[in-house]
UniProtKB/TrEMBL annotation, chain A:
Domain Methylene-tetrahydrofolate reductase C-terminal-like: 104-183
Protein name as it appears in the record: Methylene-tetrahydrofolate reductase C-terminal-like domain-containing protein
InterPro entries: DUF5981
Domain of life: Bacteria
Organism: Desulfurobacterium indicum
Automatic annotation (TrEMBL), chain B:
Protein name: Methylenetetrahydrofolate reductase
One Gene Ontology CC term in the entry: cytosol
Organism: Desulfurobacterium indicum
Gene3D superfamilies linked: 3.20.20.220
Listed CDD domains: MTHFR
Any one Pfam family match given in the protein's UniProt record, by short name: MTHFR
GO MF assignments: FAD binding; methylenetetrahydrofolate reductase (NADH) activity
Length: 208, 295
């Protein structure tokens, strides 16, 4: 899922300062799941804005905001601005599909794993050439700050990453898991990551 | 005898570290290392160490050459993609820089430009592979070179990093890919020095054991925090009760250096200051110590 973070309400208020009538649109997929922009947060924001002199036209959600056919079915009531709480992708779909100004109430953080809705970990940076079958299903491209795919750096301190001392060096995690799986790990001929596969903007086309 | 001749002839090697200036004024740095001329075999010129901006290691290496010192130019993967790295390696060679030492590098956020975009397009193994490819006469994309470089290549090893098995295997790979000498992170006791020496020797490379004299209890605790297994408690206790911790730390370092001269192949002094004292000690090792035949 895409992990997002709600902006401080005061910041959102500033973003919409030129406008009077406001629509707040939540997203239930990523934003709702991390409790940073579902219907509940949409209502909280609406309440806050109302207390600060704004007129709330509507508070709503359509489930997944990055699904274009759902967004196209939306008919907004008369409003000056839409605050979208979806990730960057979802918010852009909304902005593209309407003539009303759209601002975002969240910052999109990363593709992450959801641990009991409490902690979210970045697990994938969409490198475009997944190699985790070779690393016990654990991604060193995303989970090592240096994206070291061939072997660990020499910086781990007591098994913790030199960059974040509250996070295990991913190569320790990989090694432990491989041991458990009784799979040997050999450092083979080092290979380059093909960054041309993650050059953005990317496009993916399904043959329908 | 040059640094690379010493490497090839099995002589004992002494290297020291020199950081390029934060600015353009390099003359004092050259003055500072003059006492070590003729004593130290090669000077590791650091490449924005700890992710803090300094003048380029290539430029500083060239200045060292012009002043009669032998540089070992460090290259990190942190700031260069494969285009810049190949270009800089070729450029360094054109400038007469023959000794290079390759490493991944510290992460950007550990330095003082925390907002910089970290590159890490390649890692230390791939850096070695790139050098090997250039030396074979082509770029990694296969295009042929007009004139190929030939380097004396080194790499690094941290005896305190893990996972141990992977680190050792990685070290082996580095040597397989052309690393002739291996310089280590500083060690603080002779047992670690010996063990590290053996691990590296086994791969077929020349071990050059790192030593960083400790100047104060604060510094000792700082290093211990970075690497809890590195600084022995006994040393810390003695340092705490020493009248002059600076001198005690220095003598302690020399004691380890002495021990390494007995069984080892090389020492890498990561020191700042104390150049006269170091020159005196090296003079003793080379001329009066029981191991003087090794030099
Ligand atoms: S290897 Fe690439 S695609 Fe696979 S999990 Fe890691 S970043 Fe994502
Ligand atoms: S310590 Fe481990 S996770 Fe951290 S940068 Fe080094 S290899 Fe990557």
């Amino acid at each position: 899922m895409v992990v997002v973070e709600l902006k401080p309400f005061n910041e959102i208020l500033k973003l919409i300062s030129p406008y009077k009538k406001v629509t707040v649109l939540g997203c239930e997929i990523g934003s709702g799941r991390c409790m940073q922009g579902g219907l509940r947060e949409a209502k909280e924001i609406a309440q806050f804005l109302e207390n600060n002199g704004k007129e709330i036209t509507e508070v709503l959600t359509i489930g997944g905001t990055c699904l274009i056919e759902k967004v196209r079915k939306l008919e907004f009531k008369e409003t000056d601005v839409i605050i979208s709480l979806a990730c960057g992708a979802g918010t852009q779909v909304v902005a593209e599909e309407t003539e009303i100004p759209v601002v975002t109430g969240v910052s999109t953080l990363f593709i992450g794993a959801d641990c009991h809705r409490e902690v979210f970990y970045e697990y994938c940076i969409a490198c475009g050439d997944c190699i985790i079958s070779e690393t016990a299903g654990i991604c060193p491209i995303a989970r090592c700050p240096k994206s070291l795919k061939n072997s660990p750096c020499g910086g781990a301190i007591n098994g913790m990453c030199e960059v974040n001392n509250d996070t295990e060096c991913v190569w320790f995690t990989i090694e432990r898991k491989l041991k458990k799986l009784k799979q040997p790990f050999r450092i083979g001929e080092p290979t380059f990551i093909d960054f041309s596969r993650s050059n953005h903007p990317r496009r993916f086309k399904n043959e329908l | 005898m040059s640094f690379s001749e010493k490497i090839n002839n099995g002589k004992f090697i002494i290297t020291a570290e020199v950081a390029p200036p934060r600015g353009t004024y390099y003359q004092t740095i050259i003055e500072g290392i003059k006492p070590l001329k003729g004593y130290v075999d090669g000077f590791n010129v650091t490449d924005n160490q700890r992710s803090m901006v300094r003048a380029s290691s290539i430029a500083m290496s060239r200045v060292l050459l012009e002043n009669g010192f032998e540089p070992i130019c460090q290259f990190t993967a942190r700031d260069r993609n494969r285009i810049a790295l190949q270009s800089d390696l070729l450029g360094a060679y054109i400038l007469g820089i023959k000794n290079i030492c390759l490493m991944t590098g510290d992460f950007t956020t550990l330095g003082d430009e925390k907002g910089a975009k970290p590159v890490f397009d390649v890692d230390s193994l791939l850096m070695l592979k790139i050098v090997k490819t250039l030396e074979e006469g082509h770029l990694i994309n296969g295009k042929e070179l007009k004139g190929k470089p030939s380097f004396n290549v080194g790499a690094v090893f941290n005896p305190f990093a893990g996972p141990e098995k992977l680190q050792i295997e990685k070290l082996r790979k580095k040597v397989e890919l052309g690393a002739k000498f291996i310089q280590t992170q500083p060690v603080y006791d002779i047992e670690t020095a010996k063990r590290t020496h053996e691990i590296i020797k086994e791969t077929g490379a020349i071990p050059i054991i790192g030593l960083l004299p400790i100047k104060s209890l604060k510094m000792a605790n700082f290093i211990k925090k970075l690497n809890p297994k590195s600084v022995p408690d006994k040393f810390i206790e003695k340092l705490a009760s020493a009248k002059d911790p600076h001198t005690y730390g220095w003598e302690y370092t020399l004691e380890i250096a002495h021990g390494i001269a007995e069984f080892g192949r090389g020492i890498h002094f990561m020191l700042v200051g104390k150049t006269y004292e170091l020159a005196k000690f090296i003079d003793y090792l080379k001329n009066e110590s029981p191991y003087n035949h090794k030099f």
